[in-house]
Amino acid sequence: MKYSEYKPRPDLLKDRIILVTGAGDGIGRAAALSYALHGATVVLHGRTLNKLEVIYDEIESLGAPQPAILPLQLSSASPRDYELLVDTLDKQFGRLDGILHNAGILGERTELENYPADIWDDVMAVNLRAPFVLTQELLPLLKKSESASVVFASSGVGRETRERWGAYSVSKIAIEAVSELFAKENTHPNLRFNCINPGATRTAMRAKAFPDEDPKTLATPEMIMPAYLYLMGDDSLALNGQSIDDQD
Ligand code: NAP
């Protein structure tokens, strides 16, 4: 199926509680808006509070369900921070119907020979450790859902290594493995795990990775939303442990 042709029902995510990480900008921002406009109560996670407040206001002004805001710096989050996050979600909602693990950083575009180890650590913390720990911590709330979908953001360089993508490529290959393992080990009937490779998309991260590219030649985050809706909603119930390419 061509995901760009997927037509979600307007109420696809009605009454769902969905956490979107990195919701303040780029693809995460578009996904949060799109999920809210399809009926979800979106928990807006990010590290920059004012960006989350802007999107909160935007969602409210569109008449979509009132979202929640959950700021957390993923590169330095402590066990206590995760505990508080789970507590907050538990008290406010008592369950979780989906997570879009979208937050990510690019790191350096350089050979491993010269790759700075501190940047390596940062990329691994945000792109790999945080989605693993968050999923692990939130499993009890996900298991309370009638139908929960966990989606990890991958990349073309998450399928096979590519020169000068360093920690980013390694983190994305590893997150595909994490998603697959959660899927294989899961025994809960109402819970599934998949990856999405958004493909080249007009965001700050893409501009940093390809500074000489004309952004106007790229899909906007809004244009790639059908696949994000598909994976989060029940039309993809049969998918578990898969990795899809948004723009193919
Ligand atoms: P982006 O515009 O740079 O947005 C990334 C988001 O992640 C931002 O909201 C950012 O928050 C948040 N974030 C980064 N570090 C964080 C941290 N330490 N703690 C909490 N939040 C953090 O990137 P994007 O292009 O939308 O990418 C979204 C996802 O798609 C990423 O996982 C990326 O790897 C993947 N992807 C993108 C493309 C593409 O062409 N754009 C292609 C393949 C894969 P702030 O705004 O506060 O910095």
Keywords:
248 residues, single chain, alpha/beta, 7 helices, globular, seven-stranded parallel sheet, binds NADP nicotinamide-adenine-dinucleotide phosphate
Question: Percentage of helical residues?
Answer: 40-55%
Which series of helices and strands comes N to C? EHEHEHEHEHEHHE
Note the gap between the termini.
9 Å
Taking Cα atoms only, what radius of gyration do you get, to the nearest Å?
Answer: 17 Å
Structural class: alpha/beta
- Strand order within the widest beta sheet: 3-2-1-4-5-6-7
Question: Strand-residue fraction?
Answer: 5-15%
Report the bound ligands by name, code or SMILES.
NADP nicotinamide-adenine-dinucleotide phosphate
Number of strands: 7
**Total number of helices:** 7
Overall 3D form: globular
Q: What's the pLDDT, averaged over the residues?
A: 97
Low-confidence stretches: none
